[in-house]
Structure formats: structure tokens, C-alpha cells
Write a structure and sequence with these properties.
Layout lengths: L2 H16 L13 H11 L1 H13 L7 H9 L7 H25 L2 E2 L2 E10 L3 H7 L7 E3 L16 E10 L5 H9 L4 H4 L1 E3 L5 E2 L3 E5 L8 E2 L10 E2 L1
Antiparallel strand pairs: 1-2, 2-4, 3-5, 4-7, 6-9, 7-8
């Protein structure tokens, strides 16, 4: 067995050990303490603002002067009140994400439908057919949320791909954490796949005039028997 085959076998074995269904994941698995720490590190101002509006502003037993004093104090994130709020926020955020994924995703026969949109070169479809192998690990669990979010540069062709994969081939722990982000989770509705997950294109649409609203279906017959990888 050469080194390439060995690395592939190891990667597939690791992915198999990580495979879970959505219902298999709990908040405790994700380490809520670390989630809270990461939220503060990445989005400190946002978390302080949320604390003010969700906790202090709704506490009618506090006077405006007391609220202002608490917000202007040093080391707000080290107070017991803030820590209690943050613990509850993480739990509520987790429950909300689970509900959104469960209610807005399309689960059928143990599989989940996912979408990915990209900006590509004009020869992208031909490239996929001739030598394309990877379709990426970043997908969305609703069609409308699948958008090309990054800078497009000179590329003005939009492609949207739809597929379905076994539910336990989703990296649910990473998916939940991404959707719990207070900054981007609600918008992107992201599904994160394990690298190397087998994918078959079920539908593809393309807009080659620079307007993503003008998507037209692509004949995927040539891709019918081709397996891509995430």
C-alpha cells in the first residue's frame, strides 16, 4: 500500500468514527464553556450589547442609573450576573439552532438535502465533467441561504448545486457551532461536510450573465454516474 492510499484509508477511518446523526449531538459534547469563551474572544462587543438588551434592559427592578452603572463598570464579563446570562445564552442559542435545522432542513429516508452556490470560470461545467473531483465542504441546508458570500473578482458566472447525502455524513458538531455564531449563523444556515464525503450532483443551475437571479437549469445527464468528493 503506497502512502497516498494509506492517507486515504486513515482519513476515511477517522471520518467513520466521527459520523453522527443530529440527534446524537448534545450541548455537553460541544463544550459550552469553550463556546462561551470563543464567543467573547471573537465577538466581545456583540456579546456585551446582547447582555445589555436581553438581560439588563428587561430587568425592571433596576433603575436606569443602576443599569448605566453596571454597563460602565470595569470587567463586565467577569461579573457573576454576566456569566449566568452567558451560560443561558449559549444554551438558548444551541436549542434555537437545533430547532431551526430540524424544521428548515429537508430530511428524507435518512438523507438531507443541501445546496452550494459558487462564482466560477466560464469553463467550470466542462472542467467538472473532464477532471473535476471536489465540490467543497461548505454547503447550506436551505436553498435560499446558499449564496456565494465571498468576493467574486473577475468571475461573474453563478452556479448552484443541489444534492442529498446521508444525514450522518454531515459534520454536525462543526455545523451546530457555526450556526450558533452570533454574527453569521442566522444568515448562512451552513452545513459542514467531512472532507472526502462522496457527492452526486442531483440538480445544477447556472447564471452566466452576472445576475444570480437568472439561474437556468443545466442538463446533468453527463454527471449521472460521476462521484465527486467534498
Amino acid at each position: 500500500m503506497d502512502q497516498k492510499e494509506l492517507r486515504k484509508l486513515i482519513r476515511e477511518s477517522i471520518n467513520l468514527l466521527q459520523e453522527k446523526y443530529l440527534d446524537d449531538v448534545s450541548l455537553e459534547d460541544l463544550n459550552p464553556k469553550k463556546i462561551a469563551e470563543d464567543m467573547l474572544m471573537v465577538s466581545y462587543d456583540t456579546m456585551i450589547d446582547l447582555y445589555q438588551w436581553e438581560d439588563l434592559e428587561n430587568d425592571y427592578d433596576l433603575s436606569d442609573e443602576e443599569k448605566e452603572e453596571m454597563m460602565n463598570g470595569d470587567n463586565i464579563d467577569e461579573t457573576e450576573r454576566f456569566k449566568d446570562w452567558l451560560e443561558g445564552y449559549v444554551e438558548n442559542r444551541y436549542n434555537n439552532v437545533i430547532n431551526i435545522i430540524s424544521n428548515e432542513s429537508t430530511f428524507e429516508n435518512g438523507r438531507i438535502k443541501i445546496w452550494r452556490e459558487m462564482t466560477v470560470d466560464e469553463n467550470y461545467v466542462k472542467h467538472l465533467l473532464a477532471q473535476g473531483k471536489h465540490l467543497g465542504i461548505f454547503w447550506s441546508f436551505t436553498k435560499d441561504a446558499a449564496e456565494a458570500h465571498w468576493g467574486h473578482g473577475d468571475k461573474n458566472i453563478y452556479v448552484k448545486i443541489e444534492t442529498s447525502i446521508p444525514e450522518n455524513h454531515v459534520n454536525w458538531e462543526e455545523t451546530i457551532l457555526l450556526n450558533m455564531s452570533p454574527n453569521i449563523g442566522d444568515e448562512e444556515k451552513e452545513i459542514r461536510l467531512f472532507k472526502g464525503t462522496p457527492i452526486h450532483i442531483e440538480t445544477m443551475s447556472i447564471a452566466d450573465d452576472g445576475f444570480r437571479g437568472n439561474m437556468k437549469p443545466v442538463d446533468i445527464t453527463p454527471f449521472k454516474d460521476k462521484t465527486f468528493l467534498a
